[in-house]
Amino acid sequence: MDPFTKPHGEILTDSIKVEDETQEEMILRLITEHDRNIAIYQTGQRYYDGDPDIKSEDPPKDTNGQTDELKPDWRFDHNPHANLVDQKVGYIVGESPNYQHKEEKVTEVIEKHLGYDFDDDLNDILTAASNKGVEWLHPYVDEEGNFNTLEIPAEQIVPVWKDRKQRVLHAVIRHYTVGDELRVEYWTAERVWYYISKDGELQLGWYHGINENNPTTHLDGESWGRVPFIPFKNNSQSVSDIWRYKTFIDAMNRRSSDTQNMFDESTELIYILRGYEGENLGEFMRNLKFYKAINVSEDGGVDTIRVEVPVTSSNEWLEKLREYVYEYGRGVDFNKNELGNSPSGIALRFLYTGLDLKTKQLARKTIPAIKQLLWFVFEYEDMDGNIADEVDVTFNYNRMVNELEQSQIASMSQTVISDDTVMANHPWVDDLEKEKERLAAEDGRVDSELPIKGVEGDELE
């Protein structure tokens, strides 16, 4: 960019509103532009839920263009997309993330707010992000004064960014319907407007339950100072995983469905008619079905052909398509038995190469999102929100390991590296801090229970 060009961030901010456009007109325009992308968001979710394109295709037609009710119309869904998404999400958050900070008070606050319930929510959020490309989290304080969060579908959120890298929000538009009524919220760093759409225009409304000023503050008389919405992105492009392999899944569904349709049709014979004295083929089939006989001329006759289903070639092609899905989807195909019964650690790391690559892209986007959430947590606890930048967030990747090999390596490393590192990498240790607590408790019990030879109990006091 040359020095005389306006920075991209200013261009983005200027483009939010066109000249002589009211805030309400701007909101409606941005919602209209955003709605064009909703079908893209929903594609990955549809496939995850078992609703691929083949389910919505037109039924088979006869020669007159009418729906043929008698023609087989199987529509199979292999759904490897759901397997790949669940595999990735389970790999990164199947175990709870670790949060570390030098001050114990900070870790106690994190454990208070980011416990089991958040782990469960995080699993849902990352699943949705993998399907849609992005999912949103809204931190808020409930009516009882407790800090809470709400997952917001990407279909409802129109982000307005301050910068080209999409790291700082200028505002967020949330829109959704209740019955036939369109409701819109416009959030900035200090205020929120609540609208109801009537006759194609936005009007201020109080449906949110606050009979005070509109716009109003985020909280009771105060605001966060930030737009309280956090994007959990799937990757840098905020794109769903489905687009890496959708065409292969569609081909798998079509091939298997067509093969089953051919199976059904192969039970029937194809008739070759010579000298048939009827008016049309429909009459021929009716006569054959009801009378088991047809009229033909003196030189006429009927021959038959049986359809052969190409089962072997279909299976080979389906297997090839499956390989393409796992290759381009960067997943681990556990149906392959190429590594034997007890693969080494190197072989297992090679098996997980693609999944590691894909998951680390998700992790690089998830860690900043969690730190944004921690900023709101610390602000709620009357602490400095910037402490979130000092928190070390790590994931316990749920990778299959050779436990014997891993434990032997840990045992041999005890005099070379710290005990914490040895325990953290032991295959039987899921939570390092809890394991250290258990060891300390056992050491204390041993010290109190084991007598010292030649020393009476009173002499120890």
UniProtKB/TrEMBL annotation:
Compositionally biased intervals (Basic and acidic residues): 48-61, 439-450
InterPro entries, sorted: Portal_protein_SPP1_Gp6-like (IPR021145), Portal_SPP1-type (IPR006428)
Pfam families in alphabetical order: SPP1_portal (PF05133)
Region (Disordered): 47-70, 439-461
Highest taxon of the lineage: Bacteria
NCBIfam families for the chain: portal_SPP1
Protein's UniProt name: SPP1 family phage portal protein
Species name: Jeotgalicoccus halotolerans
